[in-house]
Amino acid sequence: MEHERNISAEEAVKIIKSGNRVFIHGSAATPVHILEALQKRHAELNNVELVSISTLGKINFNDPVYKGSFFINSLFVSENNRSVINSDRGDYVPIFLSEIPKLFKENILPLDVAIVQVSSPDAHGYCSLGTSVDIARTAVDMAPHVIAQINSRMPRTHGQGFIHISKINSLVWHDTELPEVDYSSRSNDTIIQIGKNVASLVEDGATLQLGIGAIPDQVLKNLVNHKFLGLHTEMLSDGVIPLIEKGIIDNSRKKLNIGKSVTGFMAGTRKLYDFVNDNPAIRVMDISYVNDTSIIRKNPKVTAINSAIEIDLTGQVCADSMGTYQYSGIGGQMDFIRGASLSEGGKPIIALPSVTSKGLSRIVPFLKEGAGVVTTRGHVHWVVTEYGIVNLFGKNLKQRGKELIRIAHPDHREFLEKAFYDRFKSK
Question: Catalytic residue among 11, 44, 234, 386, which?
Answer without folding.
Answer: 234
